[in-house]
Specification:
The complex is a heterotetramer, with two copies of chain A (151 residues) and two copies of chain B (121 residues).
Chain A: H1 11-14, E1 32-37, H2 43-56, H3 61-78, E2 87-95, E3 98-106, H4 118-126, E4 129-133, E5 139-147
Antiparallel strand pairs in A: 1-2, 2-3, 3-5, 4-5
Chain B: E1 13-20, E2 23-32, H1 37-49, E3 54-65, H2 67-82, E4 86-90, H3 94-102, E5 110-112, H4 115-120
Parallel strand pairs in B: 2-3, 3-4, 4-5
Antiparallel strand pairs in B: 1-2
Helix pairs in contact in B: 1-2
The chains are: A alpha+beta (151), B alpha/beta (121).
Bound molecules: adenosine-5'-diphosphate (2 copies).
One adenosine-5'-diphosphate (ADP) sits between chains A (51-52, 55, 61, 64) and C (44, 47-48, 68).
């Protein structure tokens, strides 16, 4: 249960492969997506969605708290890198007892995400997997995965 | 954030300071995140500069604690040691205890279940 | 305070005018938008976002409850009309002590929203304004407005 | 919804029936909406067909009540009158009382603060 499959085959899971969409990272289809102005004042609403989905997917309360915090970290790291007037987009896919989250913002060429920060360490501690998505020159993202402990 | 005026109409973090007998108690209510940590840092530093014997952070009504808030707590701990102030946290609910526990910081702090217990030491 | 202005001029408010966007109803820009598969199982998450935003905009608890319920009604009316595989999109704009919500789904030509139902009556009772948005042949929507009572 | 399997893993509405001395008590917990109303309707009709003296709907743990749920309550009221069953609601919190009040339905129903009070009548 703690071993994520290397390949994902069902509809909602392939949607979490950010390389798959023809629209690049901007248009990564997931069953649930939240789009907000890339403004720190709107991050609380995004992390509330993460917590709500985890609770409904029957994650235990610690895991709900961890995912809320991890999504907060991801958004807090990305929002300052967003292009003026850009959107923060967070997609959520729930499957096989885990939640995948893909958060991203539109960036200019030189934006880079620091992984030597306390925030990044917290983020990796709280999740089962965390990856920077930097293949798309126009968008920078973070892919998080959190497993449910209870089966 | 000036752009989304109504969204941030209410300050999402309440900070209330009480001083007596050389002890300062900062009561926090709401969410400690990227948005609210800077103002809290200023308040904590102000209290530390007053060199109280004890600085209590009452976090019973905190609903969210993000990494910026955790980083502030770690900073405040170092600074309190430099200034010989006893820093004590009051926290007993998941929004505070889980972030401390999940990041392995619980043991660093002197944790109390109530302000009275923290003041008694 | 209970008199909505006939014309809206600031940035977030013009975004609530569904006729303004060049992308039609599908791409109606708002500070916050939730996009989910048009599936009744995802409506609880959409109404939770509405309640969260209302609470953060300092609506009183009855008004939070009313908006949660009104958004539930709007989504419940629209989701059965959505094209196979389509998305339910709900945009939220908070300004001047009110929240505007625009919910919409992609439809085929003959989809129509019944306004002679108990659900529609509940929706109009709970909001300060409710309009069907049917100018776009590809999308059908509902625009709700809820004022905050406290200033 | 079969398509989003894990989302609906837990039934979002708990329905538990207890019968004794000619009274039926249906205890509800969770959300009464478009998704959960059909199963609840079947259960309520089943109990009404048993013609108890009293049918109590315990809604103390209901967290959301949408128009489909309100419509079901109105239907159940009419049907209970047809069958000479006394329908009584137990509700005291906002998720139930506000929808009833906002839609002007409160006065139609016999509302009680507890199951004991509802059974006593
Ligand atoms: N088991 C849970 N653990 C933690 N939070 C929960 C749980 N269930 C619900 N919540 C939170 O409580 C809020 C309201 O829940 P609820 O009343 O069930 O939602 P709704 O009325 O939208 O359908 C949601 O935003 C969700 O985040
Ligand atoms: N004043 C309020 N009234 C009703 N619900 C509220 C209120 N404040 C917060 N909530 C709800 O409680 C949930 C969690 O709130 P909170 O812990 O403040 O959010 P977060 O940790 O995401 O920043 C939110 O989903 C929101 O809907």
């Amino acid at each position: 249960m703690q071993t994520p499959e290397p390949q994902q085959r069902d509809r909602s899971s392939t949607a979490t492969d950010p390389g798959a969409g023809s629209g690049g990272l901007a248009e990564t289809p997931t069953p649930v997506e939240v789009r907000v102005h890339a403004d720190p004042a709107l991050i609380p609403s995004v992390r509330a969605v993460a917590a709500d989905l985890a609770a409904r997917a029957d994650f235990d309360l610690d895991a709900v708290s961890d995912l809320r915090m991890a999504v907060d970290e991801a958004c807090s790291a990305l929002v300052p890198l967003a292009r003026e007037g850009g959107q923060l987009r967070c997609g959520f896919a729930m499957a096989d007892g885990r939640i995948d989250v893909i958060c991203r913002v539109p960036v200019t060429g030189d934006a880079a995400l620091r992984q030597d920060t306390f925030g990044w360490r917290v983020l990796t501690t709280l999740t089962d997997d965390a990856q920077v998505l930097d293949a798309d020159p126009e968008w920078l993202g973070i892919h998080l995965r959190k497993q449910r402990l209870n089966p | 954030m000036a752009t989304d005026d109504d969204l941030a109409a209410e300050d999402p973090l309440g900070v209330d300071v009480q001083r007596s007998n050389g002890a300062s108690v900062i009561r926090l209510a709401g969410e400690i995140d990227m948005l609210t940590t800077p103002a809290l840092r200023a308040k904590v530093n102000e209290e530390l500069q007053g060199k109280p014997t004890v600085l209590v952070l009452d976090m019973l009504s905190v609903e969210f604690l993000g990494s910026s808030g955790l980083a502030l707590l770690v900073e405040a701990l170092d600074e309190s040691r430099n200034r010989d102030v006893a820093l004590r946290l009051v926290a007993n609910s998941r929004p505070v205890s889980r972030p401390l526990q999940a990041t392995g910081l619980t043991d660093l702090f002197a944790l109390y279940p109530s302000v009275e217990a923290a003041l008694a030491g």
